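ENTRY TYPE: paired fold submission
RECORD: A
CONTENT: sequence, then structure tokens
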Amino acid sequence: VSYYLFNIVIWLGCVVLFYRLMFHFTGSREASFGAALFLLADFRTATLYFWFIERQNPMAIIFGLSAVILFIKFDKNERWNRFTNVWVIALLLLSALSKEYGLVFIGVLVLYALLFDFPNLKKAFVIAVIVSVIYLGMRFSYAGGSNLGFCAEIGYLDQASQICYQDIAFPQRVKFYIWN
């Protein structure tokens, strides 16, 4: 029971952070609450509550959203700059290490600075490069990168196949990733 309760607490944390981010952009509590409620009630998130493996997804989201919100909120205060940068880098790394799609928050940070906070674009870009270099270093030195063999059974409707990704070309891999 405590495992599932913890999953729910993590997901509620994601919803609260999503609310904060939406409020930053809209300035409307009602619109932000509606968007957060929609996220909370989305039936696709039901697996987050009972699948063991699904803890990675909300953790990637909560770390990534926290990094973006921290960058937005504390960037204006000079006293917090170094402290904030270290935390933003750490949170972005935790997001990427929780689940690979956590890397998207690096792009979100740069895109935010490009569209809404142009004076801090250089800072966002430097943070993105630092996180990317650290992540790639960890990925290829510690985890072995994609050099290790990986086989998986993928299926579509009533068809199933055993696929070894290292044996196929990159364009085919993309097709199988999407299919899976």
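RECORD: B
CONTENT: sequence, then structure tokens
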Amino acid sequence: ASYDLDEVAELFQCAGSIEKKFKRDCSQFREGSFRDPSNPLIADNLISSKIMVLDFDDAVTSPSETSSYLSSRGMTHLIYQSFSHKGYPYNFHALIFMDRAVNAKNYRHIFKILKGDILARFQEENPKAIDKTGASINNWIFMPVKSKWGADVFIPKLVWKDVMARQFALLDVREYLER
């Protein structure tokens, strides 16, 4: 199935305006193809996904620097604060949209390369800044919520591939699988 990236950005922006007192109350989602859509579990149920998720914890690299880098690589993405984000060091999520769905093995491969590229680009002082659990396709993704500490971050970056055809630039799966 396909989705409108403008609508996804709008959904996340709306979610980011809602206050939640506890992390356990935050909404979660996962995009992809499921073996059994009626099964609420994703472990061994999610077959493929078109959204790569990076979870930054205690990062020195800012959300805006990360966004600029992803844009320069031609990747449409959304960046928003984690529930625990208070400012520096940064805690945020980056959703990167891929040009085709990938299975769990390919997801893990692309994650490792993308993580390595970002850490190398910014010479990140915290080598664990990008949470390794993000390498699994079988993780729920927390939706944004309004920051309890006034540290809201929301960067919807729709990178154009062809503005006349209204096509966004997405992570090129083939390029990453060949590396």
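NOTES ON RECORD B: Helices lie at 5-15, 63-72, 104-122, 173-177. Strands lie at 28-29, 33-34, 46-59, 77-81, 90-102, 141-142, 154-157, 160-162, 167-168.
STATUS: closed
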